[in-house]
TrEMBL record:
The keyword Transport does not apply. Its cofactor is heme. Pfam families: p450. It comes from Cytospora schulzeri. The keyword Nucleus does not apply. It comes from the Eukaryota. This is Uncharacterized protein. Keywords: Heme, Iron, Metal-binding. The lineage of its organism: Eukaryota, Fungi, Dikarya, Ascomycota, Pezizomycotina.
Length: 537
């Protein structure tokens, strides 16, 4: 009897809470409507802004699934957001902190964020990352070898989902950069990588809506994964700390003193009196914070790079002229014998800075397929103002800067839906020019302002290396028709977005649908003479 009474009281409490929140949310939404501001329910596609709200600002009402969201598809307003020093909503902070094991640069605010951003800025500088390019290239070379091995016998692979391979490769890369640790995740399972991906899969972004979420085994899974990750990362912290403290000249992978992001961080922490105890060891709270930061880098550093690389391959397959020009640039910088590319990068990483067209290709790919947008929490007294002077209150609203909604607008870009790497290379006299006042603040794959992505230089470098080591030797050919023939029922409509079958699916960052099914073709087998003739679809 007591159990039934408890259940009834719990249910009644939940219903009262729901009704109260529903009424409050509807009241807030009606207030926005009375102020004649743009309000839309149940649709967050960027097309809404283009077709119905040309100003690029509108409210999205999703109760009970979410609080009201102010959608920002306007570069002028997005630039305001980046300077308002707004925190992230609890619905974002909670899941990310769960995966990272605590606050990280992804979610920290105020003085703590400034401190850790300063400490990590040296390790993620363009100059330092270029010095790590040989190690990055070594990890990418494993990826290249695995792709080639898939088609060694006939010159063409079977159909497979390449996303799993890109995820494993980018995890190997970010671990190498941050910890100077080779996970070898591309060739065998690794406990750190497995625990991280398990935590991502078990993380609920909607758990606050489900009163029974805490009754699942999810907390136990996260506890186990967290212990695994902290144990693994903690051992690497101890190794790097010992090297830095003792001035060791050995490293886990290179034979020289480690230049990892973690090693630079520890060197700086050793100069801070409050980071070590009297015996000279890192304080437990500092070590815990370092583990969370590393986990945050592993999370953000692999997911966005993986998705971006798959879209680079998609665009290479679709655009013959761009493909040929990219290959010609690689021949000019690294020589026509593509098998020597790895040695060239390791001997002189600065050659990567000569890849102006490749950089433009990547930037245009990121414009068309941005990995993520930005989400902040509004607050009382804070308004966004559009070009016409209309004020949009942010109180009780999430603020979602939709990068794609800005990247696809004609007010900022000439032919916004066209793939034109040239827009990043032409001068101000050309209408395509992407560096003038028209496009100011309108390229946002990594967001902008003080809280832009600290790893964006690494992403660009990693993508350059991946294209240099693979694009001249193989063609990655999308195989969606073949995939759909095997996996889609006859009576099911195959979904496309804006005519694109490889539409973006939201994970941590955006990825191509269905893991991007492809076939890989050796160009030398196809051409018959070793020439660089790309295959296109």
């Amino acid at each position: 009897m007591r159990l039934w009474t408890t259940a009834a009281v719990s249910l009644l409490t939940a219903l009262v809470y729901f009704a109260t929140r529903f009424y409050a949310s509807r009241r807030e939404f009606r207030k926005l409507q009375r102020e004649n501001l743009n309000t839309v329910m149940h649709n967050v596609m960027w097309k809404i802004a283009r077709e119905h709200f040309p100003g690029g600002l509108y409210y999205l009402y999703l109760w009970p699934f979410s609080a009201t969201i102010l959608i920002v598809c306007n570069a002028h307003a997005a630039s305001q957001v980046e300077h308002l020093n707004l925190g992230k909503p609890k619905s974002v902070v909670g899941p990310i902190d769960t995966i990272a094991g605590g606050p990280s640069l992804l979610t920290q605010e105020g003085s703590e964020w400034k401190r850790w951003r300063r400490l990590f800025s040296k390790g993620f500088s363009a100059k330092h990352l270029l010095s790590l390019a040989p190690g990055i290239a070594e990890e990418v070379a494993v990826f290249r070898d695995l792709l080639v091995s898939k088609c060694r016998d006939t010159g063409c692979s079977e159909m497979f989902q390449i996303e799993e391979m890109t995820v494993r490769m980018t995890l190997d890369v970010i671990a190498r950069v941050v910890m100077d640790k080779r996970l070898h995740y591309q060739v065998r399972d690794n406990p750190l990588a497995a625990a991280l991906r398990s935590s991502v899969e078990w993380t609920s972004w909607r758990g606050q809506l489900n009163p029974f979420a805490t009754l699942s085994i999810r907390p136990l899974v996260h506890w186990r994964n967290s212990r695994t990750m902290n144990r693994y990362i903690g051992q690497e912290i101890d190794k790097r700390f010992s090297e830095s403290k003792l001035g060791s000249k050995t490293s886990s992978s290179t034979g020289d003193q480690s230049k990892s992001v973690l090693s630079l961080l520890i060197n700086d922490l050793l100069g801070e009196a409050d980071s070590t105890d009297p015996s000279g060891h890192i304080k437990p709270d500092i070590k815990t914070a370092m583990c969370s930061q590393v986990r945050g880098f592993l999370l953000g550093g692999h997911d966005s790079s993986s998705g971006a690389l798959t879209y680079c391959y998609l665009l290479l397959a679709r655009h013959r002229t761009a493909h040929i020009r990219l290959l010609a640039e690689h021949d000019a910088v690294f020589g026509k014998n593509y098998s020597n590319a790895l040695a060239h990068i390791q001997a002189d990483p600065h050659k990567l800075n000569q890849l102006s067209y490749t950089a433009a290709f990547i930037k245009e790919a990121l414009r068309l397929f941005p990995p993520a947008g930005g989400m902040q929490q509004g607050r009382p007294g804070v308004f966004l103002v559009d070009e016409e002077g209309r004020r949009f209150p942010t109180e009780n609203c999430g603020i979602w800067t939709v990068s794609q909604g800005i990247h696809y607008q004609e007010r900022y870009w000439v032919k916004p839906e066209a793939f034109l790497p040239e827009r990043w290379l032409v001068g101000p006299e050309d209408p395509l020019y992407a560096g003038g006042p028209r496009t100011k603040g309108a390229w946002r794959p990594f967001e902008q302002g003080p809280r832009n992505c600290i790893g964006q230089t690494l992403v660009m470098l990693e993508l350059k290396i991946a294209l240099v080591l693979t694009a001249r030797e193989i063609d990655v050919v999308p195989a969606y028709e073949e995939w759909d023939a095997l996996h889609v029922k006859d009576d099911k409509i195959i979904k496309t977005v804006n005519g694109n079958r490889a539409y973006q699916e939201e994970k941590i960052a955006a990825h191509p649908a269905d893991g991007f099914p492809v076939r890989v073709v050796l160009r030398s087998k196809k051409a018959g003479d070793g020439s660089s003739r790309p295959m296109h679809v």
